[in-house]
Amino acid sequence: MMRLLQSSWLVSLTGCLVYLATTAVVLSSAKFESPAPDVETVFSANDDPSWKFRNPEFEQWVEDLRSEKTALAARKLELNEWETRLQAEQQELSTVTQRVAQLQADFEKDIVRLKDQQIKNLKRQAKTMADMAPESAASVLDQMSDDDAARILSIMKDDQVALLLETMSKMGRAQTRRAATITERMRHLLPTSTSAAPAAAP
């Protein structure tokens, strides 16, 4: 009998029966018992869930960020307005600069054209005076200013100028001094006036 009680299969069978009996008792009692309330999981009516939690410092930080964002947006708008204004002023300045450059170019062209026209007129007058008798040409020079007379004589040939100045010297002491003055003015004329001298030959 002792050998039978000490056998392994009997011990295993006894353990299984005890386990089944305990499980049955526990399950049958759990059907009729209500679960005891968990003290740690009980919430009062005044408790709020986590998503309703309010932190004043966090809300102030969010409000500061919103204010800063609004200020940055206003600043960006102001900078955009300044950029637009500067672009418009730059465009206007560029237009004015181009206009000034065009006016300057036109002015320089007009000056060149005027100088060319003056040279043509001087050549024409010089040729006319070269075709005149020396006395008549001296009388015409007497009606001109010293500068105009010097310009005309600077275009004429040297022998023609010498003849006219000699004729002026014979017209009296005043005309002699004026001939010297005209000769002095001729020395200070620009080379462009004297470079056209061969064209005045009759």
Question: What's this entry about, in short?
Answer:
Helix content is about 75%, strand content about 0%. It has about 200 residues and is an all-alpha fold.
Can you give a write-up of this model?
With 202 residues, the protein is mostly helical. The chain has one domain (56-200). It has helices spanning 2-5, 8-30, 56-131, 134-142, 146-155, 158-169, 173-187, 191-194.
The major beta sheet can be summarized as: none
Radius of gyration: 61 Å
Element pattern in H and E: HHHHHHHH
The portion of residues assigned to helices is over 70%
Quaternary assembly: single chain
Element layout with pairings:
Blueprint: H1 2-5, H2 8-30, H3 56-131, H4 134-142, H5 146-155, H6 158-169, H7 173-187, H8 191-194
Which tags fit this structure?
rod-shaped, disordered C terminus, 202 residues, 8 helices, mainly alpha
